[in-house]
Each structure stands twice: as structure tokens, then as C-alpha cells.
Sequence to fold (270 residues):
Amino acid sequence: MCILRAAFGGVVSASLACAAFADVPAGIAALEAGDVSGAVEEFQAGFDDGDADGAFFIGRLFEMGLGTERDMRRAVELYSAAADQGSALAQNRLGLMYLNGELVLQDYQRAAELICAAAETGDANSAFNCGLLFADGQGVEKDAARAVAYWQQASRQNHVAAINYLGQAYRDGAGVAQSYETAFGNFARTGAAGNPLGLFELARAYQAGNGVGRDLIKAHGYANLASARGMDEARVLRDALNAQLDRDDLEAAQRFARTWEATPLDQVTQ
Fold:
């Protein structure tokens, strides 16, 4: 069944959209190329051919106001249609709307049902969010170990936030046995890729000698890198380390930061 009708001001022919070859990836490619009408045709055809993600992506267009007037209520309808047909992307987005009470009743239980169902399909963002729900006890019983399990699932897909949360869990012994070495390994992955939190946590680890040998030069260098990426806490740490380093060590720390280069996360050795 066509779900566009005249929603996009006649830009898309409903009959054409229904007849087009179902190809959601082609719709994404068209959208990235700036062809909104072509993207909608592909998304619509995908949905009509049984790919629930098609309705999700059309919902995103309504949510963002791309190719049409922004219409959050229409977006919710499309997310609901896609979620009912098993779209993990739609389940996650709709679940977050229930979590925050955006144009739907705030309902933590419903949020958890949707988000964690999406996580079971292997979707990394959903797994990370489901972990947050278990960590905070929102819509589910608080369970730090299950939170860690979901973050591990997401981290295997290089989900940066999940890797950082895993690092914090191991650092603090929340849901797992405390291990500064394992925490450091997680922060090293995201830090090497240039993530500000990962860089800051590396600076803290080198400052304290937690999971790695104490090294104030590297601590300053990583704090400097994190500060340059907008982390105020890192700037405070860097400035505090200024007073602890002599002139030669400070020059070495700044040289370390100046010559440091990020490595794409999928190329970071685990």
C-alpha cells in the first residue's frame, strides 16, 4: 500500500513509487546525492515490497523537513508502521520518542520493548541504547551486567559510545570485574580514532597510571588533544599538568600532540 500519496507536494508519483524496483540502499544513495524525490520513490517502493526500513526513511524525511514540510506527527505514523513490520531502525527511533515523550506518551516500558527488540536484531545503536536502559533501570529492572552485554554487542560493530561505556564499566567495576587494563584498552580504541572522551580517558589513565605505566608527558599530550576537540575537563587537566612538567617535558608533550594522527576505528588494533 502506498504511504506517500500527495504528501510530498506532487514531487513523487504514487503510482510510480509503487511500481519502482524496491531498493532502500538506492534510496539512501539518491538522498546522499541530493535527489530527495528519487530517494522517496525508492523508499516507498521498498516499503511496498516488504522492506520496512522504507517507511522509516520516509519518516526521517518528514522529521527533518527534507522535500516536504516538517511534520513530526506524520513521522511518528511512519515510524509506527515501520516498527510494526520489524524495522529495527524505526523501533529504535520510536522507542527513543517514547522514552522522551516526543509526540507520544512518555512510557519507559514501551520504550524498552521497542529499543531492546531492535537490539536483538543486531542493530548497534539499539544495543547501545538498550544497554543504557538496563544501566539506568528505565522500563526494565536495573541490571549492570546486562547493560555491559549489550554494549559489548555494539562495540563489536565499532560503536564508539558503546566502547567508551564499556571502558567506564571496566574502570569502575560496574557489571564486570574491575580491570583498569581492559578499560584502558577500550579507551585506546576510541582515543586512537580521535574521539574526545577516549582521548580524555587516556590522559587520565596515564596521569594516574591506571592500566598503563604512569606517563605525564602522554597524559598532557592526550589531554591537549581532547581539549582541542572541545572537552573542558580535558583543558582543566592539561593546564594542571602544565605545572607538573618542566620545560623539556612540556615541549615533548606538545610535540607528541602536534605529531599525533588519528587512525580510523576499523583499523585500530584491538
Remarks:
- The CA atoms of residues 155 and 163 lie 5 Å apart.
- Residues 173-270 form one domain.
- Residues 1-22 have pLDDT under 50 and may be disordered.
